[in-house]
Amino acid sequence: MPEVRWEPHQLRAAFARRLSELFGRDVPAYPTLLAATREVNLRVLGSQGARAERLGDLSRVGDERHGAIRVGTPRELSQVGRIFAAMGMYPVGFYDLREAATRAVPVVATAFRPLDPPELARGPFRVFTSMLVPGDRRFFTADLGRRLDHALADRTLFPPLLLDLADRAIAWHGLDPADAESFLALATDALRLSPEPVDRAWFTELSRVCAVAADIGAGRTTHLNHLTPRVLDIDELYAVMRGRGLEMIDTIQGPPHWAGPDLLLRQTSMRALAEHRPFREPDGTITHGTVRVRFGEVESRGIAATVRGRALYDELTAEVEETVADATRSAPVPAPERARLAAELWNRRVPASEAALAQHDLAYFTYTVEPDGRHPGGPPPLTLPDLLDQGWIRAEPIVYEDFLPRSAAGIFQSNLDTAGRRDAAAPGTELDAAWLAGALGRPLRDPHTLYDRLRRDSVARVAEQLGLPGRLLPVTVSPGDDAP
């Protein structure tokens, strides 16, 4: 066995840097987005001080990226899983964008990322990976689905050497320098937008279903759709980008800007740019057209919500949508008014402090014993709320490291030129997390399980340090607690 010098986190960091360089060369607005993000982050740090780094220091936030790619088959998704496992990234979460989108987005997805906080801290990189569902008859007729399956089965996205190197890195927990260079070069090249001509008639037919379907199924390669930086104030970033003349989508996806702490994930993006693409016409000639497949997205991360917190988020989101739908019957509701309605509802219904979010089991925190003895003395109380109130322990927020299906679908559909085609009367294809785990051939982690384990481990440490029985410090156990 050769000496291992490049560990998974080093491969991950190097891969993220190479993708950033690639995307910056190919998408001219991307360096502008990065520069604006850095400027906003520095301004927020200057005005808020340490409070700005409550959910991550500026060094990590500045390095943080999430990418997005699209594949067509379970085989391709499984191969993606092997490549990312070589970099210490594992599938977390099941996202069904077919149900979350109002327009036709016939994909399911997962996100590959590091699992524990130390790994996230030294290599904060995630890749949201979508997979087409040709068997879903709401989108694809039986004939189109068969032809699409055949086209997807007839292509190779990742060269055998890349997959062999990925398997070697998994087995050896890294690669020697020469193999690491080969692995990184091949992995980066696999996500480069191909210059090869696309069959015009096939692309057009798939586009009638959805532009995402055409992007996935019409070519013989995949590519990076976006590479998202993290910003500390997404509302300011949105205004800065519009002020620089860049066309943004009409809203910020996710929770509203409200009086309480940042929760979950807020995302927005520039409109996908019209990029030149060669097409092969039916007579064999090569012409040029434009496609919109890559865009600059930006995100702001908040505190991870518990199962109860997510249920409340979904409830409030649905309530806002119902209000907007009722109002739209008389006149369209502008995005700023929708944001105002959402913020007003959140300010009425959601506790506006970290302590209250923790006390009501709406957000995840870890707990540590206060070292300076700020408590009143005597024996410690037996519940987390009392320990917090009396100053025996402090709560640290757990950052949300995952995604929201409705927001992801919103970003997708905001960059589509047409609504596409979806037959609500046709039978859908039932897919779930267990199915996706089988397609991947590896465990699919549940996000709540990961966050809850961090919380419960911290509670156990607090109980031990204070000499309290852990059973007297109840913590809600989330679904999927027995997942690997």
UniProtKB/TrEMBL annotation:
The keyword ATP-binding does not apply. Pfam families: HGLS. Its EC number is 1.13.11.93. Coiled coil: none annotated. InterPro entries: HGLS (IPR009770). Gene3D superfamilies: Uncharacterised protein PF07063, DUF1338. SMART domains: DUF1338 (SM01150). Keywords: Dioxygenase, Iron, Oxidoreductase. GO terms for molecular function: dioxygenase activity. Its cofactor is Fe(2+). The keyword Iron applies. Belongs to the 2-oxoadipate dioxygenase/decarboxylase family. This is 2-oxoadipate dioxygenase/decarboxylase. The lineage of its organism: Bacteria, Bacillati, Actinomycetota, Actinomycetes, Frankiales.
